[in-house]
Design goal:
heterodimer, A: 361 residues, Glutathione S-transferase Yfyf (Class Pi), Chain A, domain 2, 15 strands, 44% helix, B: 203 residues, alpha/beta, two-stranded antiparallel ribbon, 12% strand, elongated, binds adenosine-5'-triphosphate, binds magnesium ion, binds zinc ion
Chain lengths: 361, 203
Amino acid sequence: MHLAQLRLRDFRNYQRLDLRFGSGFHLLLGNNAQGKTNVLESVYLLATLRSFRGVGPAQMIRHGSPGFFVGAEVVGHHGCLIRYYWSMKERRLSVDQEPVRRLSDYLGLVRAVVFCTEDLQLIKGSPRFRRRFMDLLLAQTEPAYLHALQQYVKVLRSRNALLKAPRWDQATLEAYTHSLLNYGNQIMEARYRLVPKLLPLAQQAYRRISGDDEGLECAYAPAVREDFQQELARLASRERQFKTTLLGPHRDELQWSLKGRSVSEFGSEGQKRSVVIAMKMAQAELLTQHAGTPPILLIDDVMGELDQKRRSGLLPLLDRSHHAGGQVFMTCTEENWPRELGRRLNRWIVREGTVNPSSPH
Amino acid sequence: MPALPLTLIELKAALNRLPGIGPRSAERMALHLVQGPKEVIKQLTDCMQKASERVQICHICGGLTEEQPCQICDSPGREPGLICVVVKPTDILSLEKTGSYAGHYHVLGGHISPLNGVGPEDLNIAALEKRLDQSEVQELILALGSDVEGDATSYYLAQRLGRQGLKITKIAQGLPAGSDLDFADELTLNRALQGRIALDHEG
Ligand SMILES: Nc1ncnc2c1ncn2[C@@H]1O[C@H](COP(=O)(O)OP(=O)(O)OP(=O)(O)O)[C@@H](O)[C@H]1O
Ligand SMILES: [Mg+2]
Ligand SMILES: [Zn+2]
Protein backbone atom coordinates (compact mmCIF):
# COMPACT_ATOMS: atom_id res chain seq x y z
CA MET A 1 0.00 0.00 0.00
CA HIS A 2 1.20 3.51 -0.70
CA LEU A 3 -0.01 7.05 -1.20
CA ALA A 4 0.03 8.15 -4.81
CA GLN A 5 -1.14 11.62 -4.02
CA LEU A 6 -1.18 13.93 -1.02
CA ARG A 7 -3.10 17.19 -0.96
CA LEU A 8 -2.89 19.70 1.87
CA ARG A 9 -4.88 22.92 2.26
CA ASP A 10 -4.26 25.23 5.18
CA PHE A 11 -2.54 22.44 7.06
CA ARG A 12 0.17 23.75 9.42
CA ASN A 13 2.51 25.91 7.31
CA TYR A 14 1.13 24.57 4.00
CA GLN A 15 -1.38 26.82 2.35
CA ARG A 16 -1.58 24.53 -0.64
CA LEU A 17 0.41 21.42 -1.40
CA ASP A 18 -0.19 18.89 -4.17
CA LEU A 19 2.27 16.04 -4.34
CA ARG A 20 2.31 12.87 -6.40
CA PHE A 21 4.68 10.07 -5.61
CA GLY A 22 5.30 6.41 -6.14
CA SER A 23 6.08 3.68 -3.67
CA GLY A 24 9.58 3.38 -2.25
CA PHE A 25 11.83 5.73 -0.41
CA HIS A 26 11.20 9.41 0.00
CA LEU A 27 13.66 11.64 1.71
CA LEU A 28 12.38 15.04 2.81
CA LEU A 29 15.34 17.37 3.09
CA GLY A 30 15.35 20.88 4.45
CA ASN A 31 16.49 23.23 7.14
CA ASN A 32 14.77 23.49 10.47
CA ALA A 33 11.19 24.75 10.66
CA GLN A 34 10.48 24.41 6.94
CA GLY A 35 7.62 21.88 7.15
CA LYS A 36 9.23 18.43 6.94
CA THR A 37 7.59 16.98 10.03
CA ASN A 38 4.28 18.58 9.04
CA VAL A 39 4.14 16.38 5.94
CA LEU A 40 4.65 13.24 8.03
CA GLU A 41 2.05 14.50 10.48
CA SER A 42 -0.53 14.77 7.70
CA VAL A 43 0.12 11.20 6.54
CA TYR A 44 -0.16 9.92 10.10
CA LEU A 45 -3.36 11.91 10.49
CA LEU A 46 -4.85 10.07 7.51
CA ALA A 47 -3.94 6.77 9.14
CA THR A 48 -5.16 7.45 12.66
CA LEU A 49 -7.09 10.76 12.59
CA ARG A 50 -4.69 11.93 15.28
CA SER A 51 -1.47 13.85 15.41
CA PHE A 52 1.61 11.99 16.61
CA ARG A 53 2.65 15.17 18.36
CA GLY A 54 -0.09 14.70 20.95
CA VAL A 55 -2.05 17.80 19.96
CA GLY A 56 -5.64 18.20 18.87
CA PRO A 57 -6.79 18.96 15.33
CA ALA A 58 -7.18 22.70 16.01
CA GLN A 59 -3.42 23.12 16.25
CA MET A 60 -2.97 21.70 12.77
CA ILE A 61 -5.06 24.44 11.13
CA ARG A 62 -2.84 26.98 9.43
CA HIS A 63 -2.80 30.14 11.54
CA GLY A 64 -5.64 32.42 10.51
CA SER A 65 -7.58 29.81 8.50
CA PRO A 66 -10.96 28.36 9.47
CA GLY A 67 -10.02 24.72 8.87
CA PHE A 68 -7.61 22.31 7.25
CA PHE A 69 -8.05 19.81 4.47
CA VAL A 70 -6.01 16.67 3.91
CA GLY A 71 -6.67 14.48 0.91
CA ALA A 72 -4.95 11.40 -0.44
CA GLU A 73 -5.11 8.78 -3.10
CA VAL A 74 -4.32 5.35 -1.67
CA VAL A 75 -3.02 2.66 -4.00
CA GLY A 76 -3.08 -1.00 -3.03
CA HIS A 77 -5.48 -3.64 -1.89
CA HIS A 78 -8.07 -1.14 -0.73
CA GLY A 79 -7.26 1.68 -3.13
CA CYS A 80 -9.40 4.73 -2.49
CA LEU A 81 -9.65 8.49 -2.37
CA ILE A 82 -9.73 10.02 1.09
CA ARG A 83 -10.81 13.55 1.93
CA TYR A 84 -10.71 14.98 5.41
CA TYR A 85 -11.78 18.46 6.36
CA TRP A 86 -11.68 19.72 9.92
CA SER A 87 -12.72 23.04 11.41
CA MET A 88 -14.13 24.04 14.77
CA LYS A 89 -17.60 23.98 13.22
CA GLU A 90 -17.43 21.11 10.82
CA ARG A 91 -15.76 17.77 10.28
CA ARG A 92 -16.07 15.88 7.05
CA LEU A 93 -14.40 12.60 6.31
CA SER A 94 -15.16 10.78 3.12
CA VAL A 95 -13.82 7.77 1.27
CA ASP A 96 -14.52 7.69 -2.46
CA GLN A 97 -17.01 10.53 -1.98
CA GLU A 98 -18.97 8.55 0.63
CA PRO A 99 -19.12 10.06 4.11
CA VAL A 100 -17.58 7.78 6.74
CA ARG A 101 -20.20 6.83 9.31
CA ARG A 102 -18.16 4.71 11.67
CA LEU A 103 -14.57 5.05 12.75
CA SER A 104 -14.06 1.31 12.53
CA ASP A 105 -14.99 1.38 8.84
CA TYR A 106 -12.25 3.89 8.25
CA LEU A 107 -9.26 2.91 10.38
CA GLY A 108 -7.07 0.47 8.51
CA LEU A 109 -7.44 2.03 5.05
CA VAL A 110 -4.14 3.82 5.57
CA ARG A 111 -1.72 2.07 7.88
CA ALA A 112 1.30 3.96 9.13
CA VAL A 113 3.97 3.61 11.76
CA VAL A 114 5.84 6.68 12.90
CA PHE A 115 9.34 6.87 14.37
CA CYS A 116 9.81 10.22 16.06
CA THR A 117 11.48 11.84 19.04
CA GLU A 118 8.19 11.85 20.97
CA ASP A 119 8.40 8.03 20.95
CA LEU A 120 10.73 8.15 23.92
CA GLN A 121 7.60 8.69 25.98
CA LEU A 122 6.82 5.05 25.28
CA ILE A 123 9.48 4.21 27.83
CA LYS A 124 9.90 7.40 29.83
CA GLY A 125 6.26 8.45 29.96
CA SER A 126 3.38 7.26 32.10
CA PRO A 127 1.71 3.87 31.52
CA ARG A 128 -0.91 5.70 29.49
CA PHE A 129 1.54 5.86 26.54
CA ARG A 130 2.11 2.11 26.62
CA ARG A 131 -1.61 1.43 26.86
CA ARG A 132 -2.13 3.62 23.81
CA PHE A 133 0.62 1.69 22.02
CA MET A 134 -1.24 -1.57 22.66
CA ASP A 135 -4.59 -0.03 21.78
CA LEU A 136 -3.44 1.34 18.46
CA LEU A 137 -1.86 -1.94 17.49
CA LEU A 138 -4.89 -3.99 18.53
CA ALA A 139 -7.32 -1.58 16.89
CA GLN A 140 -5.46 -2.17 13.65
CA THR A 141 -5.18 -5.93 13.92
CA GLU A 142 -8.29 -7.12 15.75
CA PRO A 143 -11.59 -6.11 14.21
CA ALA A 144 -13.64 -6.07 17.41
CA TYR A 145 -11.10 -4.31 19.62
CA LEU A 146 -11.83 -0.71 18.79
CA HIS A 147 -15.51 -1.13 19.53
CA ALA A 148 -14.84 -2.80 22.88
CA LEU A 149 -12.39 -0.04 23.79
CA GLN A 150 -14.75 2.77 22.85
CA GLN A 151 -17.56 1.15 24.80
CA TYR A 152 -15.30 0.59 27.79
CA VAL A 153 -14.32 4.24 27.88
CA LYS A 154 -17.95 5.29 27.79
CA VAL A 155 -18.94 2.83 30.51
CA LEU A 156 -16.05 4.00 32.64
CA ARG A 157 -17.10 7.63 32.29
CA SER A 158 -20.70 6.77 33.22
CA ARG A 159 -19.67 4.63 36.13
CA ASN A 160 -17.37 7.33 37.50
CA ALA A 161 -20.14 9.91 37.15
CA LEU A 162 -22.35 7.58 39.14
CA LEU A 163 -19.77 7.16 41.89
CA LYS A 164 -19.41 10.93 42.09
CA ALA A 165 -23.13 11.63 42.28
CA PRO A 166 -24.46 12.54 45.73
CA ARG A 167 -26.96 9.69 45.55
CA TRP A 168 -27.18 6.57 43.41
CA ASP A 169 -28.80 3.24 43.74
CA GLN A 170 -26.96 -0.01 43.93
CA ALA A 171 -28.83 -1.67 41.05
CA THR A 172 -27.79 1.08 38.64
CA LEU A 173 -24.18 0.72 39.71
CA GLU A 174 -24.47 -3.02 39.15
CA ALA A 175 -25.79 -2.47 35.64
CA TYR A 176 -22.79 -0.32 34.71
CA THR A 177 -20.44 -2.69 36.52
CA HIS A 178 -21.82 -5.50 34.40
CA SER A 179 -20.89 -3.62 31.21
CA LEU A 180 -17.52 -2.63 32.65
CA LEU A 181 -16.65 -6.27 33.31
CA ASN A 182 -17.86 -7.35 29.90
CA TYR A 183 -15.84 -4.84 27.85
CA GLY A 184 -12.94 -4.81 30.30
CA ASN A 185 -12.48 -8.56 29.99
CA GLN A 186 -12.54 -8.33 26.20
CA ILE A 187 -9.80 -5.70 26.30
CA MET A 188 -7.61 -7.68 28.68
CA GLU A 189 -7.98 -10.87 26.65
CA ALA A 190 -6.87 -9.02 23.53
CA ARG A 191 -3.87 -7.53 25.34
CA TYR A 192 -2.91 -10.99 26.64
CA ARG A 193 -2.99 -12.24 23.05
CA LEU A 194 -0.88 -9.35 21.83
CA VAL A 195 2.23 -9.69 23.97
CA PRO A 196 3.40 -13.15 22.80
CA LYS A 197 3.14 -11.95 19.21
CA LEU A 198 4.88 -8.68 19.90
CA LEU A 199 7.78 -9.79 22.06
CA PRO A 200 9.73 -12.02 19.62
CA LEU A 201 9.53 -9.30 16.98
CA ALA A 202 10.76 -6.67 19.42
CA GLN A 203 13.59 -8.96 20.56
CA GLN A 204 14.68 -9.60 17.00
CA ALA A 205 14.63 -5.87 16.23
CA TYR A 206 16.49 -5.05 19.42
CA ARG A 207 19.24 -7.55 18.58
CA ARG A 208 19.69 -5.90 15.21
CA ILE A 209 19.83 -2.40 16.62
CA SER A 210 21.99 -2.95 19.66
CA GLY A 211 24.13 -5.64 18.11
CA ASP A 212 23.96 -7.91 21.10
CA ASP A 213 21.32 -9.81 22.97
CA GLU A 214 20.71 -7.90 26.16
CA GLY A 215 17.74 -10.00 27.16
CA LEU A 216 14.83 -7.78 26.23
CA GLU A 217 11.57 -8.86 27.81
CA CYS A 218 8.12 -7.42 27.87
CA ALA A 219 5.34 -8.37 30.23
CA TYR A 220 1.74 -7.41 30.18
CA ALA A 221 0.87 -6.34 33.72
CA PRO A 222 -2.88 -5.97 33.98
CA ALA A 223 -4.28 -4.18 37.01
CA VAL A 224 -6.66 -7.12 37.40
CA ARG A 225 -4.84 -10.14 38.82
CA GLU A 226 -7.26 -12.99 38.23
CA ASP A 227 -10.92 -12.27 38.44
CA PHE A 228 -12.08 -8.79 37.53
CA GLN A 229 -15.50 -9.24 39.08
CA GLN A 230 -14.30 -10.49 42.46
CA GLU A 231 -11.46 -8.03 42.77
CA LEU A 232 -13.69 -5.12 41.86
CA ALA A 233 -16.31 -6.24 44.36
CA ARG A 234 -13.65 -6.21 47.08
CA LEU A 235 -12.94 -2.55 46.27
CA ALA A 236 -16.55 -1.45 46.65
CA SER A 237 -16.12 0.60 49.80
CA ARG A 238 -12.87 2.18 48.61
CA GLU A 239 -14.55 3.11 45.34
CA ARG A 240 -17.28 4.84 47.32
CA GLN A 241 -14.62 6.69 49.25
CA PHE A 242 -12.52 7.74 46.24
CA LYS A 243 -15.57 8.20 44.00
CA THR A 244 -13.96 6.62 40.99
CA THR A 245 -13.43 3.23 39.33
CA LEU A 246 -10.29 1.81 40.89
CA LEU A 247 -9.73 -1.33 38.85
CA GLY A 248 -9.73 -2.26 35.20
CA PRO A 249 -7.68 -2.19 32.00
CA HIS A 250 -7.53 1.62 32.21
CA ARG A 251 -4.87 0.95 34.83
CA ASP A 252 -2.87 -1.65 32.91
CA GLU A 253 0.86 -1.50 32.29
CA LEU A 254 3.20 -2.97 29.70
CA GLN A 255 6.59 -3.50 31.32
CA TRP A 256 9.82 -3.55 29.33
CA SER A 257 12.97 -4.87 30.89
CA LEU A 258 16.56 -5.68 29.99
CA LYS A 259 18.21 -8.55 31.84
CA GLY A 260 15.35 -8.46 34.31
CA ARG A 261 15.67 -4.74 35.09
CA SER A 262 13.02 -2.20 34.17
CA VAL A 263 14.18 -0.17 31.18
CA SER A 264 12.44 3.01 32.29
CA GLU A 265 14.06 2.90 35.72
CA PHE A 266 17.51 1.49 34.98
CA GLY A 267 18.12 1.75 31.26
CA SER A 268 20.71 4.10 29.79
CA GLU A 269 19.55 6.75 27.33
CA GLY A 270 20.90 4.69 24.44
CA GLN A 271 19.13 1.57 25.67
CA LYS A 272 15.86 3.45 26.05
CA ARG A 273 16.16 4.76 22.53
CA SER A 274 16.92 1.32 21.16
CA VAL A 275 14.01 -0.29 22.99
CA VAL A 276 11.64 2.36 21.65
CA ILE A 277 12.80 1.75 18.09
CA ALA A 278 12.50 -2.00 18.63
CA MET A 279 8.91 -1.47 19.82
CA LYS A 280 8.14 0.52 16.71
CA MET A 281 9.82 -1.99 14.42
CA ALA A 282 7.83 -4.76 16.06
CA GLN A 283 4.71 -2.73 15.49
CA ALA A 284 5.52 -2.30 11.80
CA GLU A 285 6.34 -6.00 11.47
CA LEU A 286 3.10 -7.05 13.15
CA LEU A 287 1.06 -4.79 10.91
CA THR A 288 2.86 -6.21 7.90
CA GLN A 289 2.11 -9.78 8.98
CA HIS A 290 -1.47 -8.89 9.61
CA ALA A 291 -2.20 -7.10 6.35
CA GLY A 292 0.26 -8.91 4.11
CA THR A 293 1.78 -5.61 3.03
CA PRO A 294 3.94 -3.21 5.00
CA PRO A 295 2.52 -0.02 6.53
CA ILE A 296 3.81 3.35 5.45
CA LEU A 297 6.87 4.17 7.54
CA LEU A 298 7.25 7.75 8.74
CA ILE A 299 10.68 8.40 10.11
CA ASP A 300 11.16 11.81 11.64
CA ASP A 301 14.64 12.94 12.56
CA VAL A 302 15.52 9.77 14.41
CA MET A 303 18.20 8.75 11.94
CA GLY A 304 20.14 11.84 12.85
CA GLU A 305 20.04 10.93 16.51
CA LEU A 306 21.24 7.38 16.07
CA ASP A 307 24.81 6.30 15.78
CA GLN A 308 25.95 4.33 12.75
CA LYS A 309 25.42 0.96 14.42
CA ARG A 310 21.87 1.60 15.51
CA ARG A 311 21.03 3.11 12.15
CA SER A 312 22.10 0.05 10.29
CA GLY A 313 19.78 -2.00 12.48
CA LEU A 314 16.90 -0.13 10.93
CA LEU A 315 18.01 -0.76 7.37
CA PRO A 316 16.59 -4.29 6.95
CA LEU A 317 13.15 -2.98 7.91
CA LEU A 318 13.43 -0.18 5.40
CA ASP A 319 14.71 -2.51 2.71
CA ARG A 320 11.94 -4.98 3.21
CA SER A 321 9.31 -2.29 3.03
CA HIS A 322 10.95 -1.16 -0.17
CA HIS A 323 10.87 -4.62 -1.76
CA ALA A 324 7.29 -5.25 -0.75
CA GLY A 325 6.04 -2.17 -2.54
CA GLY A 326 5.73 -0.16 0.64
CA GLN A 327 6.47 3.47 1.15
CA VAL A 328 8.87 5.24 3.47
CA PHE A 329 9.01 8.94 4.25
CA MET A 330 12.04 10.12 6.10
CA THR A 331 12.94 13.65 7.17
CA CYS A 332 16.51 14.89 7.48
CA THR A 333 18.44 18.08 7.48
CA GLU A 334 20.95 18.24 4.65
CA GLU A 335 23.98 17.58 6.80
CA ASN A 336 22.86 14.43 8.56
CA TRP A 337 21.01 12.38 6.02
CA PRO A 338 22.09 8.78 6.12
CA ARG A 339 24.16 8.37 2.99
CA GLU A 340 24.25 4.61 3.37
CA LEU A 341 20.70 4.68 2.05
CA GLY A 342 22.11 6.00 -1.21
CA ARG A 343 20.54 3.94 -3.92
CA ARG A 344 16.97 4.45 -5.04
CA LEU A 345 16.05 7.50 -3.10
CA ASN A 346 13.53 10.13 -4.08
CA ARG A 347 14.83 13.37 -2.69
CA TRP A 348 12.50 16.25 -1.97
CA ILE A 349 13.50 19.71 -0.90
CA VAL A 350 11.26 21.25 1.72
CA ARG A 351 11.41 25.00 2.00
CA GLU A 352 8.96 27.41 3.64
CA GLY A 353 5.87 25.35 3.06
CA THR A 354 6.77 24.13 -0.43
CA VAL A 355 8.02 20.69 -1.46
CA ASN A 356 9.92 20.16 -4.70
CA PRO A 357 11.74 17.19 -6.20
CA SER A 358 15.48 17.45 -6.29
CA SER A 359 17.43 15.67 -8.98
CA PRO A 360 20.04 13.30 -7.55
CA HIS A 361 23.62 14.37 -7.86
CA MET B 1 -28.94 49.56 10.67
CA PRO B 2 -32.38 49.84 12.29
CA ALA B 3 -33.16 46.93 14.58
CA LEU B 4 -36.00 44.50 13.95
CA PRO B 5 -39.34 45.47 15.52
CA LEU B 6 -39.66 44.13 19.02
CA THR B 7 -42.46 41.65 18.28
CA LEU B 8 -40.44 40.24 15.43
CA ILE B 9 -37.49 39.76 17.74
CA GLU B 10 -39.74 37.93 20.16
CA LEU B 11 -41.09 35.72 17.37
CA LYS B 12 -37.58 34.95 16.26
CA ALA B 13 -36.53 34.06 19.80
CA ALA B 14 -39.53 31.74 20.17
CA LEU B 15 -38.74 29.95 16.90
CA ASN B 16 -35.11 29.71 17.86
CA ARG B 17 -36.09 27.61 20.84
CA LEU B 18 -37.44 24.86 18.59
CA PRO B 19 -35.18 21.87 17.99
CA GLY B 20 -33.01 22.11 14.90
CA ILE B 21 -33.77 25.81 14.32
CA GLY B 22 -30.73 28.06 14.59
CA PRO B 23 -30.84 31.87 14.90
CA ARG B 24 -30.51 32.40 11.15
CA SER B 25 -33.33 30.10 10.12
CA ALA B 26 -35.43 31.49 12.99
CA GLU B 27 -35.01 34.97 11.60
CA ARG B 28 -35.79 33.86 8.06
CA MET B 29 -38.94 32.07 9.24
CA ALA B 30 -40.09 35.02 11.32
CA LEU B 31 -39.63 37.45 8.42
CA HIS B 32 -41.37 35.07 6.07
CA LEU B 33 -44.33 34.64 8.40
CA VAL B 34 -45.06 38.31 9.08
CA GLN B 35 -44.74 39.28 5.43
CA GLY B 36 -46.83 36.44 4.02
CA PRO B 37 -50.60 36.07 3.77
CA LYS B 38 -52.49 36.16 7.05
CA GLU B 39 -54.18 32.81 6.35
CA VAL B 40 -50.90 31.00 6.59
CA ILE B 41 -50.44 32.28 10.13
CA LYS B 42 -54.01 31.45 11.01
CA GLN B 43 -53.71 27.93 9.70
CA LEU B 44 -50.44 27.40 11.51
CA THR B 45 -51.68 28.65 14.87
CA ASP B 46 -54.89 26.63 14.51
CA CYS B 47 -52.93 23.47 13.80
CA MET B 48 -50.60 24.01 16.69
CA GLN B 49 -53.47 24.80 19.01
CA LYS B 50 -55.44 21.75 17.97
CA ALA B 51 -52.48 19.41 18.11
CA SER B 52 -51.37 20.59 21.51
CA GLU B 53 -54.91 20.21 22.85
CA ARG B 54 -55.56 16.78 21.45
CA VAL B 55 -52.27 14.96 21.46
CA GLN B 56 -51.57 13.38 24.79
CA ILE B 57 -49.56 10.65 26.35
CA CYS B 58 -51.29 7.29 26.56
CA HIS B 59 -51.86 6.46 30.22
CA ILE B 60 -50.95 2.86 29.66
CA CYS B 61 -47.99 2.75 27.28
CA GLY B 62 -46.72 6.32 27.18
CA GLY B 63 -47.10 6.64 23.40
CA LEU B 64 -48.62 9.64 21.62
CA THR B 65 -52.37 9.49 21.10
CA GLU B 66 -55.56 11.49 20.74
CA GLU B 67 -57.70 9.14 22.77
CA GLN B 68 -57.24 7.19 26.01
CA PRO B 69 -55.97 4.57 25.81
CA CYS B 70 -54.19 4.69 22.47
CA GLN B 71 -55.22 2.57 19.48
CA ILE B 72 -52.49 0.06 20.10
CA CYS B 73 -53.31 -0.47 23.77
CA ASP B 74 -56.99 -0.67 22.86
CA SER B 75 -56.64 -3.08 19.95
CA PRO B 76 -58.02 -6.57 20.65
CA GLY B 77 -56.04 -7.91 17.69
CA ARG B 78 -52.66 -7.41 19.30
CA GLU B 79 -50.89 -10.07 21.28
CA PRO B 80 -51.65 -9.42 24.93
CA GLY B 81 -48.65 -11.29 26.31
CA LEU B 82 -45.98 -9.28 24.52
CA ILE B 83 -44.61 -5.86 25.48
CA CYS B 84 -41.79 -4.09 23.69
CA VAL B 85 -40.02 -1.47 25.80
CA VAL B 86 -38.74 1.55 23.86
CA VAL B 87 -37.04 4.81 24.79
CA LYS B 88 -39.30 7.41 23.22
CA PRO B 89 -42.74 7.61 21.58
CA THR B 90 -41.37 7.87 18.03
CA ASP B 91 -39.61 4.51 18.46
CA ILE B 92 -43.09 2.98 18.36
CA LEU B 93 -43.56 4.42 14.88
CA SER B 94 -40.24 2.94 13.72
CA LEU B 95 -41.20 -0.50 14.96
CA GLU B 96 -44.73 -0.27 13.59
CA LYS B 97 -43.30 0.45 10.15
CA THR B 98 -41.61 -2.93 10.11
CA GLY B 99 -45.09 -4.48 10.10
CA SER B 100 -43.71 -7.54 11.83
CA TYR B 101 -44.52 -6.76 15.42
CA ALA B 102 -48.00 -7.33 16.81
CA GLY B 103 -47.55 -6.91 20.55
CA HIS B 104 -47.87 -3.93 22.88
CA TYR B 105 -45.43 -1.17 23.78
CA HIS B 106 -44.09 0.68 26.76
CA VAL B 107 -42.26 3.99 26.52
CA LEU B 108 -39.52 4.39 29.11
CA GLY B 109 -38.82 8.08 28.49
CA GLY B 110 -35.03 7.83 28.39
CA HIS B 111 -32.01 5.78 29.43
CA ILE B 112 -30.49 5.49 32.86
CA SER B 113 -27.73 8.01 32.33
CA PRO B 114 -25.33 8.92 35.13
CA LEU B 115 -23.67 11.49 32.88
CA ASN B 116 -26.97 13.34 32.50
CA GLY B 117 -28.15 12.72 36.04
CA VAL B 118 -30.99 10.44 34.95
CA GLY B 119 -31.69 7.63 37.40
CA PRO B 120 -34.27 4.84 37.27
CA GLU B 121 -36.70 6.89 39.38
CA ASP B 122 -36.83 9.45 36.55
CA LEU B 123 -38.07 6.85 34.09
CA ASN B 124 -41.45 5.30 33.48
CA ILE B 125 -40.52 2.02 35.18
CA ALA B 126 -43.02 1.83 38.04
CA ALA B 127 -45.89 1.91 35.51
CA LEU B 128 -44.29 -0.96 33.62
CA GLU B 129 -43.94 -2.92 36.83
CA LYS B 130 -47.63 -2.39 37.47
CA ARG B 131 -48.52 -3.61 33.97
CA LEU B 132 -46.54 -6.78 34.62
CA ASP B 133 -48.33 -7.29 37.94
CA GLN B 134 -51.77 -6.76 36.50
CA SER B 135 -51.71 -8.66 33.24
CA GLU B 136 -50.34 -11.93 31.93
CA VAL B 137 -47.21 -10.84 30.11
CA GLN B 138 -45.05 -13.66 28.77
CA GLU B 139 -42.31 -11.75 27.02
CA LEU B 140 -40.75 -8.36 27.49
CA ILE B 141 -38.68 -7.22 24.52
CA LEU B 142 -36.17 -4.51 25.34
CA ALA B 143 -35.47 -2.28 22.33
CA LEU B 144 -33.35 0.36 23.99
CA GLY B 145 -30.49 0.64 21.52
CA SER B 146 -27.15 -1.06 21.72
CA ASP B 147 -25.00 1.74 23.08
CA VAL B 148 -23.58 1.79 26.59
CA GLU B 149 -26.60 3.42 28.22
CA GLY B 150 -29.03 1.22 26.33
CA ASP B 151 -27.13 -1.86 27.48
CA ALA B 152 -26.95 -0.79 31.11
CA THR B 153 -30.63 0.15 31.14
CA SER B 154 -31.53 -3.23 29.65
CA TYR B 155 -29.48 -5.02 32.29
CA TYR B 156 -31.07 -2.95 35.03
CA LEU B 157 -34.59 -3.70 33.79
CA ALA B 158 -33.88 -7.40 33.42
CA GLN B 159 -32.72 -7.56 37.04
CA ARG B 160 -35.55 -5.47 38.42
CA LEU B 161 -38.44 -6.86 36.40
CA GLY B 162 -37.34 -10.48 36.13
CA ARG B 163 -39.87 -12.93 37.56
CA GLN B 164 -41.22 -16.45 37.17
CA GLY B 165 -42.76 -17.11 33.79
CA LEU B 166 -41.55 -13.90 32.19
CA LYS B 167 -39.10 -14.11 29.33
CA ILE B 168 -36.98 -11.01 28.87
CA THR B 169 -35.18 -10.52 25.58
CA LYS B 170 -33.42 -7.68 23.89
CA ILE B 171 -33.04 -6.82 20.27
CA ALA B 172 -29.45 -6.22 19.39
CA GLN B 173 -28.44 -8.36 16.47
CA GLY B 174 -28.31 -6.43 13.25
CA LEU B 175 -28.57 -3.04 14.89
CA PRO B 176 -25.51 -1.00 14.09
CA ALA B 177 -23.49 -0.54 17.25
CA GLY B 178 -24.13 2.67 19.09
CA SER B 179 -27.17 3.60 17.05
CA ASP B 180 -30.67 4.24 18.22
CA LEU B 181 -33.83 3.19 16.52
CA ASP B 182 -34.11 6.39 14.49
CA PHE B 183 -31.20 5.42 12.33
CA ALA B 184 -32.08 1.82 11.80
CA ASP B 185 -33.92 1.15 8.60
CA GLU B 186 -36.92 -1.14 8.54
CA LEU B 187 -35.01 -4.12 7.27
CA THR B 188 -32.40 -3.98 10.02
CA LEU B 189 -35.07 -3.49 12.64
CA ASN B 190 -36.94 -6.43 11.25
CA ARG B 191 -33.87 -8.62 11.47
CA ALA B 192 -33.19 -7.32 14.96
CA LEU B 193 -36.68 -8.30 16.04
CA GLN B 194 -36.24 -11.82 14.68
CA GLY B 195 -32.87 -12.36 16.31
CA ARG B 196 -33.52 -11.19 19.84
CA ILE B 197 -31.48 -12.64 22.66
CA ALA B 198 -32.59 -13.71 26.09
CA LEU B 199 -31.35 -11.88 29.18
CA ASP B 200 -30.67 -13.75 32.39
CA HIS B 201 -32.29 -12.68 35.57
CA GLU B 202 -32.85 -14.09 39.00
CA GLY B 203 -36.36 -15.40 39.57
N1 LIG C 1 -0.79 25.78 12.72
C1 LIG C 1 0.24 26.32 12.04
N2 LIG C 1 0.02 27.32 11.13
C2 LIG C 1 1.05 27.85 10.45
N3 LIG C 1 2.32 27.47 10.58
C3 LIG C 1 2.59 26.49 11.46
C4 LIG C 1 1.58 25.87 12.23
N4 LIG C 1 2.13 24.93 13.01
C5 LIG C 1 3.45 24.97 12.75
N5 LIG C 1 3.73 25.90 11.81
C6 LIG C 1 5.03 26.23 11.24
O1 LIG C 1 5.57 25.09 10.65
C7 LIG C 1 6.97 25.13 10.76
C8 LIG C 1 7.50 23.88 11.41
O2 LIG C 1 7.29 22.85 10.57
P1 LIG C 1 7.91 21.42 10.90
O3 LIG C 1 7.67 21.09 12.30
O4 LIG C 1 7.41 20.52 9.86
O5 LIG C 1 9.45 21.75 10.71
P2 LIG C 1 10.61 20.80 10.26
O6 LIG C 1 10.91 21.10 8.84
O7 LIG C 1 10.28 19.41 10.60
O8 LIG C 1 11.77 21.37 11.16
P3 LIG C 1 12.85 20.61 12.10
O9 LIG C 1 13.95 20.19 11.21
O10 LIG C 1 13.25 21.68 13.04
O11 LIG C 1 12.14 19.48 12.77
C9 LIG C 1 7.33 26.31 11.62
O12 LIG C 1 7.74 27.35 10.77
C10 LIG C 1 6.03 26.63 12.30
O13 LIG C 1 5.92 28.00 12.59
MG1 LIG D 1 10.82 18.23 12.26
ZN1 LIG E 1 -51.01 3.03 24.72
